[in-house]
Amino acid sequence: MEIISGGVCAAQGFTANGIHCGIRKNKDKRDLALIYSQVPASAAAVYTTNLVKGAPLYVTRKHLTNGKAQAVICNSGNANTCNADGIEVAEQMSDLAAKALGIASEDVIVASTGVIGQPLDIAPIAGGMEALAAGLGAHSQLAAEGIMTTDTKRKELAVSFTVGGKTCKIGGIAKGSGMIHPNMATMLVFITTDCAISPAMLQKALSTDIQSTFNMVSVDGDTSTNDMVVVMANGMAGNDEITGEGADFDAFMQALNTLTVYLCRCIAADGEGATKMLECKLTGAKTEAIAKTVAKSVICSSLTKAAMFGSDANWGRVLCAIGYSGADVDVTKVEVSFSSCKGEILVCKDGAGVAFSEEKAKEILLEKEIDILIDLHDGEGSATAWGCDLTYDYVKINGDYRT
Q1: Is the pLDDT of residue 185 over 50?
Q2: Which residues touch 265 (CB under 8 Å, ≥6 apart)?
Q3: Which of 16, 156, 258, 336 would bridge with 348, disulfide CB 3.0–4.6 Å?
Q4: In the chain, what are the domain boundaries?
């Protein structure tokens, strides 16, 4: 397996584009993205757990009932959520993309991201569709920019891997900066691969993978209305189709996980107002489920996040988050350390503080990537969760988000 360039266009048969069509006021910001497969592809998706869902999710879910898709159309700047005409507008987006590409509307995945509760005008999308489709090419970066809202950086990666003696590629783009919380968060992730895999196994791969990746990311504790992770697999690599578990499926899962873990880290690092990416690595739990619960509790703790912003080795906040997680934990066995490229320091052992250098701890916590290492000393269960620090800028960004 190898990291390669190309993003969502790395796999054979996939092209993409992103333009400014006029949804967003700033003409320098792209607000419409398109991803296209030369041939129909197997498709799988997972969606937000929020009971309030954006209209595009309902349309996409309907379109993917047959496990097939050929394109993704996505706008930023408006979530098309809680609007009386939301479904109609989402279907119009699908129809416009299908017409421009010469494919069936039912083969188009629709997504939107941005402000909730404001009607989405179809006119800018209709006006930009011809240019968007005409400009399709190896433009993963443009598509990645087209789906960004408060993101400050593009998020994309591609990986090559081998299945059945054939070289396959998988790539993805993502957006996500705020309204990020476990069990799907304000994120849109579009993944493409030329590996041949059945819709059922593709869905199994995605649904399994997100449990330890996207469902373990938190920025601010708010679960979005528009989350969607989609994978399209067009089979153009020429491998024998993966229709069941085995070595080929394992190779696909490994490549998918390499991609999704990278995107998780990107989303966490680019949290709204964030200055630091936090990774909580938890070991020694009785079960994996307990490990996930505890790791998420720590990464979601506002007090822990604020302490990391201040480079304060306040391990008591970590213990507090472990204690209220609701998980079966013997707190008298808990060990906590903080780590970064500047070193590692033990701050808690057997559920109690130990002597440590505050100066060394400060040096470690001043870095941009911080590991919170927790060992429960109670079993073999482990998990990793990702988040970021809580800063003044987070409040500023969300205080005037609509204006």
Answers
A1: no
A2: 277, 279, 386
A3: 336
A4: 2-269, 277-399
Q: Which CATH superfamily is domain 277-399 in?
A: ArgJ beta chain, C-terminal domain (3.10.20.340)
Kindly tell me if the per-residue pLDDT of 116 is higher than 90: no
Q: What is the pLDDT of residues 221-268, one digit of tens each?
A: 555 667 889 999 999 999 999 999 999 999 999 999 999 999 999 999
Q: Which of 186, 260, 293, 391 is catalytic?
A: 186
Closest CA to 292 of 300, 282, 302: 282
Please say if 186 is a catalytic residue: yes
Q: How confident is the model at residue 272 (pLDDT cuts 50, 70, 90)?
A: confident
Superfamily classification of domain 2-269: L-amino peptidase D-ALA esterase/amidase (3.60.70.12)
